[in-house]
Write a structure and sequence with these properties.
single chain, Immunoglobulin-like, 2 domains, 4-stranded antiparallel beta sheet
Length: 170
């Protein structure tokens, strides 16, 4: 009877593997203008984000100035694999942080950030940019419940086989 249990477990595992179709990857940032971590003479009046696949509208961009204030962002456009945003009067010297949120071709939201430093402009007191929370930390509760549900499902699938095995040995 242990062979039956082993066969059922292997069959269940095989069906799980075959049942899951190919995973479609989400869009990922492949470049930006200015580049992430770049040091440039003056803060740009426009930003461009380039992705590895087409991006759907709407796209969102937010820029934080070196002093922690928000830079006005207008005319955010998503065309094919690029998102462009126009910035209003970025005149401060220091590190800027630009965050984006887009929808990839498979419908999933993608977000991230870049930073760049301007060496000219008005001197201000630098404020540290916000930190980006890791995926695993944002979704730890979802992962916990998913693993727990999978464990319960396996127990419920194998419990009848265990009872049948016990009754045949008697």
């Amino acid at each position: 009877m242990h062979n039956v249990l082993l066969r059922v477990a292997l069959l269940s595992f095989s069906l799980l593997l075959m049942g899951s179709g190919p995973a479609s990857a989400h869009a990922s940032l492949v470049g930006s203008d200015p580049a992430d971590g770049a040091t440039i003479a003056a803060a740009p009046s426009a930003l461009t984000f380039s992705f590895n696949e087409n991006i759907a509208s709407p796209a969102y961009v937010a820029v934080t100035a070196p002093d922690g204030s928000k830079i006005e962002v207008s005319e955010v456009t998503a065309v094919d694999k690029e998102v462009t945003a126009t910035l209003a009067d970025p005149d401060q010297r220091g590190r800027y942080t630009a965050t984006f949120r887009v929808v990839s071709a498979d419908g999933h939201p993608v977000e991230g950030l870049i930073d760049y430093t301007a060496t000219s402009g008005r001197a201000v007191t630098q404020v540290d940019p916000p930190t980006q929370e890791a995926f695993i930390h944002r979704h730890s509760a979802h992962l916990f419940w998913g693993i727990l549900a999978a464990a319960v499902a396996i127990v419920l699938l194998l419990a009848p086989l265990r009872r049948r095995d016990d009754s045949s040995n008697a």
